[in-house]
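pasting for ref
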Amino acid sequence: MPRAVREQQMLDAAVRSFARLGYRAASMDQIAQLAGVSKPLVYLYLNSKDELFTACIRREAGALVAAVRAGVEPGLPADRQLWDGLTAFFTHTAENPDGWAVLHRQARTHGEPFAAEVTAMREDMAAFVTHLIGDAAREARRDPRLADAEVTGLAQALVGAAESLADWANATPGVTARVAASTLMNFAWAGLQNLLHDTPWTPPPPP
């Protein structure tokens, strides 16, 4: 069997083990058995448990970002691009629950090297959303140069909300990708439209 194919089998087994048992409880023996290979072969290909876990994070993060980008067709109205991106995000996380568990639960809680890999994925997502907000501003005929901090904050908030909602959707029977995307779209788009049309919510004066 070609090395690349065998390595993907090992990563598949590792993602399943890390997601369901946790990073510390998952063993190289079990991962090798699940992949149908010897433990020495796992070490030969991926050197250590840390490197195996890092490879899992990178693969799952890359697949998620690629799915979101592939789901969005450039040139469509900004709201449609955002809808398509959210639908692609929730579809991918629903179809790959073990990969999402590795990214959202395991990688964040087992040390800086692993968390940094997820942070890089989040920044990629946030940059993509920031671009969509800029498109929305241009469509609204508002000066597209919104305050950088404001745009960045909006993008980070949307990405964080999507992550939390994906976790909830995967644990809640009957919540489909379209339902999750619609929930977040209804929550976020109305507020964004108010901001773009100069009718943002105004906080009350301090006491």
